[in-house]
Hints:
- Chain A is mainly α and about 160 residues long.
- Chain A folds into 2 domains: about 5-70; about 75-150, no CATH class.
- Chain A has helices at about 5-25, 40-60, 75-95, 100-115, 120-140, 150-155, and strands spanning about 30, 35.
- A two-stranded antiparallel ribbon of chain A has the order 1-2.
- In chain A, helix 3 packs antiparallel against helix 4 and helix 4 (about 100-115) crosses helix 5.
- In chain A, about 35% of the residues are buried.
- Chain B is about 75% helix and about 0% strand.
- Chain B is built from 22 helices and 2 strands.
- In chain B, strands 1-2 form a two-stranded antiparallel ribbon.
- The longest helix of chain B is centred in the N-terminal third of the chain and has 34 residues, at about 105-140.
- The radius of gyration of chain B is 22 Å and the shape is globular.
- Chains A and B meet through helix 1, strand 2, helix 2, helix 3 and helix 4 of A and helix 8, helix 9, helix 17, helix 18 and helix 19 of B.
Amino acid sequence: MKHLDQYAGIFWLVVGGAVTFSSFYYGVGSPSEPGPGFITFLAGGALTVLSLILFVASARSKSPFQRLSHLWAGLETRKVVYILGFLVVYTFLVGPVGFLIMTFLLLFLLFRVQGSYSLKNVLLLSAAATVLSFIVFDQWLGVQLPRGFMGYLLF
Amino acid sequence: MEMLNHLLYGFEVALQPLPLFLCFIGVLIGTLVGVLPGLGPVAAISLLLPATFHVPPVASVIMLAGIYYGAMYGGSTTSILVNLPGEAASVVTCLDGYQMARKGRAGAALGIAAFGSFIAGTVGIIGLTFLAPPLASMALRFGPPEYFAVMVLGLTILIFLAGGSMVKSLMMACVGMIIGNIGMDPISAQPRFTFHTDILLDGVGLVPLVMGLFGISEVFLNVEQSLTTRKVFETNLKGLLPNLRDWKESIGPIARGSAMGFFLGILPGGGAVISSFVSYGIERRLSRHPEEFGKGAIAGVAGPESANNSATAGAFIPLLTLGLPSNAVMAILLGALMIFDTPPGPRLVSLHPEIFWGVISSMYIGNAMLLILNLPLIGLWVKILKIPYPILFPLIVLFCLIGVYSLNNKTSEIGLMLLFGVVGYLMKKFKFDGAPLILAMVLGPLMDKSLRQSLLMSGGSPQIFFDSTICLALFTIVAVVLFVLPLLPMISRFRKKVGEVEESP
């Protein structure tokens, strides 16, 4: 493929096709009695057609050849991958482990990803932000942040 | 006289301690996010939305509105001092604002931006005060076909004005429509696209979606670019009061920017960004010294900054009178009002006058607060601008995590936000605009309902959409916007320019 929009066109074509097809499962109905899948059928169908237009137009475009890797050229994308990884782990563990421990660890790692601050400062900053956010949101605003196993010991 | 009574009632509501305090907090946070590049009003409102669920609806909406117009004020500071737009509507201010700062006139630029914003903001609110009630009573006559037609028009104009590829914007509107209809069907109660999970049964939440698309994705994009410290221009921040010559050169641009910004703000998708561009173009054309534009002309700061503030007031008109959002911020406000069980629309003024008039009156107060806040606190904003991004972004992430979790105390919503964060990151890489997606997502269920109701009423005949004059007129405008306007060379040049600006970091 010579143009980035062709990748996007194919992706949305698959999504649009899947939505249009699935709408029949929910029941498209008829114009006089539209079913639950009526609007998604229309939207999915339109997305399919538009994706095709995008794919064909970009295939015929005379703009210079573009590789997918151009999108990430000269950028520090591994940092994005690290952050996403930390956040995925956080999502799974914050419930069982608890807000205080997990948030402290997450902030510690996030501060380390980009900054070049001393270990002591990062530890202090992470601890301060974690405790302060817990006090403001949990204790003052009444948001029930996950206690985790620490809950049995502390609360 | 009746209008004055309503307005006084609004002031009575807005001057209560809690709404007044939250109005102050709203404009303060708004200015802050306006000042900070990489964090716009959409992200800030979505971050704070969950926190407002603990206060009465009127106070909550007052605060959220304050963030929106506060951000328009704050955006100019960064443009002038750092040559980086704090948010998209201040892109044009960089051109002459930064040049003024380089010539040692940062104070005058900041001052005229603040005064212009105040004057235009107030003009916009006066327009809102007088135009919204009659429009709301007219909208009471709208049936499902008219509503459907208005929503189609709103989406079309937004797509048209979004800049960049129209096909891509239309695609995003379709995706938004699909996402908006995930969950239980309101008519048959059948679950749609839930993948047999409970998480999606109530639909995709607006908060995880916008926080992911606008908050987390922005963090990803900034982190990979290694934003560290910014160079802040600090010359002559003293004389913030513009001199007589500055006023003479600015009063015309402020007046024109106020009027035009307000009307462009009413248009769906028009909003602050477009109005600031149009204002700059007009001022350069009208100026006796167009060659000074781009080299530090004060009119190039006064006009656009007035226009973008006036536009924020105009944007409230379709939301409060028709219940239709004209941009992504208004879409989130619509979502918030629906969560509070006070859906906006023509009945809002009679069913919940405290919200309708309270919000309008609070905007007069908020504007005055902003003027008082902006000038003396300029030193503070400069200090905040110096906070390095490596310190800032973990805190933004923390806010997103707590905000999205606090909605329903579910970690699955954090997962949903991350998913949309990745989607938003890729969308920006492939140059897809998020605004049509958000608007279509919010309008999706309403459009589904009004379309199906209309078709049920007519026994399946699409003729119902052409029977009433209002529908016919609206669909004619849709056709012109989609098929005729893009062919005009002047219009396509303008769309390309807006597209380039919205894509720039």
